[in-house]
Amino acid sequence: xxxxxxxxxxxxxxxxxxxxxxxxxxxxxxxxxxxxxxxxxxxxxxxxxxxxxxxxxxxxxxxxxxxxxxxxxxxxxxxxxxxxxxxxxxxxxxxxxxxxxxxxxxxxxxxxxxxxxxxxxxxxxxxxxxxxxxxxxxxxxxxxxxxxxxxxxxxxxxxxxxxxxxxxxxxxxxxxxxxxxxxxxxxxxxxxxxxxxxxxxxxxxxxxxxxxxxxxxxxxxxxxxxxxxxxxxxxxxxxxxxxxxxxxxxxxxxxxxxxxxxxxxxxxxxxxxxxxxxxxxxxxxxxxxxxxxxxxxxxxxxxxxxxxxxxxxxxxxxxxxxxxxxxxxxxxxxxxxxxxxxxxxxxxxxxxxxxxxxxxxxxxxxxxxxxxxxxxxxxxxxxxxxxxxxxxxxxxxxxxxxxxxxxxxxxxxxxxxxxxxxxxxxxxxxxxxxxxxxxxxxxxxxxxxxxxxxxxxxxxxxxxxxxxxxxxxxxxxxxxxxxxxxxxxxxxxxxxxxxxxxxxxxxxxxxxxxxxxxxxxxxxxxxxxxxxxxxxxxxxxxxxxxxxxxxxxxxxxxxxxxxxxxxxxxxxxxxxxxxxxxxxxxxxxxxxxxxxxxxxxxxxxxxxxxxxxxxxxxxxxxxxxxxxxxxxxxxxxxxxxxxxxxxxxxxxxxxxxxxxxxxxxxxxxxxxxxxxxxxxxxxxxxxxxxxxxxxxxxxxxxxxxxxxxxxxxxxxxxxxxxxxxxxxxxxxxxxxxxxxxxxxxxxxxxxxxxxxxxxxxxxxxxxxxxxxxxxxxxxxxxxxxxxxxxxxxxxxxxxxxxxxxxxxxxxxxxxxxxxxxxxxxxxxxxxxxxxxxxxxxxxxxxxxxxxxxxxxxxxxxxxxxxxxx
Length: 869
Prior knowledge:
The protein is an alpha+beta fold. One of its GO terms (molecular function) is helicase activity.
């Protein structure tokens, strides 16, 4: 390309991209990653892809409110529009009504639109990409977001010439010889501030009131066949123009005069600040968050313990039934939405999964052929980690997961209920919103909690075009991003990422935010709103996976000192309860969880001993002596006599009956006990019959027989085929190894620097190959350009070899067509170095390296023009 051509104003988006440097192209591909998947062959293809409807819609959805308002103003401006016209549409007419903040922020918005290839051209010829103009420009079917109607020229397109001349006469303009000049004269009148003001002053008050109702949109109104005099005055002067029978519109030029030149009623050049509702001591925030983190770990462990021997059945369509979710909520003592959150978090972390029908249980109680949810082998590995690392894994999973528990209970597009652990719960925008909410909290002083309204207002300013999801019918007035933001604030508190609404130190580390240099003043509870200065630290950007792992490790290190040291003792009470005044060491917590049931949680956990819980410990292989020694060793208070009696009584009866497989049988040395069972009416459903004085046979399977005898008040023990007592362990049922569900990405991933460098080099080289002038000959037109269809050059084998050999001697570059081993055709610019053995070695400008090509794969060659660079 010559210097004269480079200095000329670009005539297309492709030419505008061609004069960009590599840094600018990298910024474009980073902000619009869909453009680089797959890598375009040249800049013309990149420009074409950047103008497709899907890509433009995606880019518009990622604009902040002011940048979007700027694009909307360009959609109603002239094409091309000078910067001065755009400034007038955004800030209004010069004078008292002009907004200086808009003038200051507009260059940034225009630069952003240029960077994302939505706007191109110099400041005197700004052009909005045609697809964006079509999406944002007004029409009767799709009213403009600015509330402006069509121009006078567009609104009068179907009007008769006589009617146009009547309007000219009514506003005091001389008649013209044609409709084009008449429409131009009318448009000039409406854009002349002085003459337009005089025209409006002649109207009755009722007419001006009608214009005031239409000026900010929608600009369309209805009129009867015989309009009132104040409407007739507007129709006669062209201030209302008919668009359809009974429908009129306020022309754009007239509306802009009434708006003092502004396209928007309220331009928003500055993002709304995130307001602090209350301030707390940072130490108090961290301590509160640490307490919530401990509760989160205990809740997940309690959930998995409840599902250790096989959890709820999997619905045919996938997920938990409503009844099972209610049971889980009761077991965890939380509301159902919170139970859905914990279930989904454990599932996203890979701690629970479907067992695929049966699992890996070694317990006597068969789970059955039904597919059920259960803990995974990864759960056992997770439990062995230090508490802070376990929390960090849960927190990172929550931050990056696309599964959204908040939609559980809603309806999908087919009006089906969305169930926990079921399909269709992924919302690809969720990780971005969660990270952004935490980033906004990180911009506040340490210890400051925000107002929910200010957080939502800021998010809506940053992404105003996100449409509501149709499947969420419970709250149609709120878009999905807003609801995810609300859920994020509550879920972060449940998980311990925040404390008292403020971002805790581990939460800051989790998103890679630096510690702020200033702290909020102490205030125990909500108070007056704290002023937030505009000089707040910038919000941290989302982290790459490797960076996220480092941030999680840092968060765990910050959280570990906030956790209390695990205790090795409990306080036994005379009412058959044990109080754990804090978190317990793992072996103590595991055995106590088997020996007793959790009665209440909080700062102190209360365990209750029952016959069933003691029998559970005996089933796990413990003896009465083991249990007595365990309690005496770990209790800071004397072991109460009622608890000793309870253990001895259950142990005396435990194993007196033996159940095995016949289908099943009951064996007992005391035949009187077997007589009692046979006489009990509740045993009728077990199908028992006596085989010997000490043996009963049953038609039920061993698991059902065990449950039936226990329901009758007995304490049977299962035995193996060899006659040994089977030990039922709490962690006996596990699923096969399962991978955690992969997040569903929100479009193509942002390319890394390595990919961007390679992509830009390939695009530049491909563009060089497609735009370099060639001498007239094979594959080129008379002017030296490539064929209309961009065909590859075609020459015979002899001519190809001769041309390449000549280029080796002269050192000239050639344009070649090449087909690789996969059959993909491309065009390249090469500088041949040598030719031997049927191969040509050349410096390939496309790949920016020396390569060797088989001559038989070269479709043809052409010499470059002498002025090619």
